[in-house]
Amino acid sequence: MRAGRRAYFVSAVRDFKGTDFGTFWRDNLPVHPEFKDKPELISRLILTQQLTALSENHQALVRELRVNRGVASVGELMAFEHGDWIELGKLIGRPWLEVGIHSWVRLR
Structural domain tally of the chain? Predict the structure, then answer.
């Protein structure tokens, strides 16, 4: 995200007084000048937030999923095979991912 947009985003989050962040994404952020009429940008931000939460803020993993793997929805993660997760763990230098993925694979 560009620095200007990042500043607007941080400002919008800081100024949000509600407790339902669905309202933030749906009603508040789209009225900010940098995000007005840019639903695709808001969708990408939501996906990045979801991946950040799922990965416990592991930015290398989020970047790999978004940029290099082209993941466009959290649902796409369900199509990942066990080997894909092992490869990701090795690529980002996180062997714990291999341990954690066994639970993920069982849930699928």
Answer: 1
